[in-house]
Design a protein that fits this description.
This protein is α+β, with helices and mostly antiparallel strands. The protein has five helices and seven strands.
Length: 173
């Protein structure tokens, strides 16, 4: 079956939340856990979200967010480029159902977010945990450039090694 990408709909949230729980069980993503998967999918800095669907079944998603000055990826990007953090956007909450990996859904979701950002004239940067080898391979195949390694902070005092990447070009089909 063919995977299609469309803007995320409210009715996608329950199915995506179930996928997220399975992803966390398999990969430990997100590192913060999934105590409230429905809430986690609703990012407070969301600009746009997309859903990957196979048939009519949601199998993955991505959210494009506005960077905040206290975001470590935004700080690394600013140090690297000197750019204005208020223009920066960050793809986040990218995941694909483990049963659908290799379908091209992750690449297509990233393409939707990056193309949207660049069409609006916004630069793109994001962080990824170093433990997430498959995600790093995807990002590097897409042409993302690693600009810094840092500690991703979550919870009250937990950290996870992460890398910050930038994607400066629109992605080819």
């Amino acid at each position: 079956m063919t995977v299609t990408i469309r803007p995320r709909r409210e009715e996608d949230i329950p199915a995506l939340a179930a996928v997220l729980v399975r992803v966390h069980e398999l990969d430990g993503y997100p590192v913060e856990g999934v105590a409230d998967p429905n809430g986690w999918l609703r990012h407070n800095q969301e600009l746009q979200s997309w859903t990957a669907v196979e048939g009519d079944q949601p199998i993955g998603q991505i959210t494009l967010t506005r960077a905040r000055p206290d975001d470590t990826a935004a700080q690394a990007w600013h140090t690297h480029t000197g750019g204005e953090v208020g223009r920066l956007v960050i793809p986040a909450r990218l995941f694909v159902d483990p049963d659908h990996r290799g379908s091209g859904a992750g690449r297509s979701l990233m393409k939707a977010a990056v193309d949207f950002a660049h069409a609006e004239g916004n630069p793109v940067a994001f962080d990824v945990m170093l433990k997430d080898h498959a995600a790093i391979r995807l990002y590097e195949r897409l042409g993302a450039e690693r600009i810094q390694v840092l500690e991703h902070r979550y919870g009250s005092s937990l950290t996870e090694p992460a890398a910050v990447y930038v994607l400066e070009e629109r992605l080819n089909s």
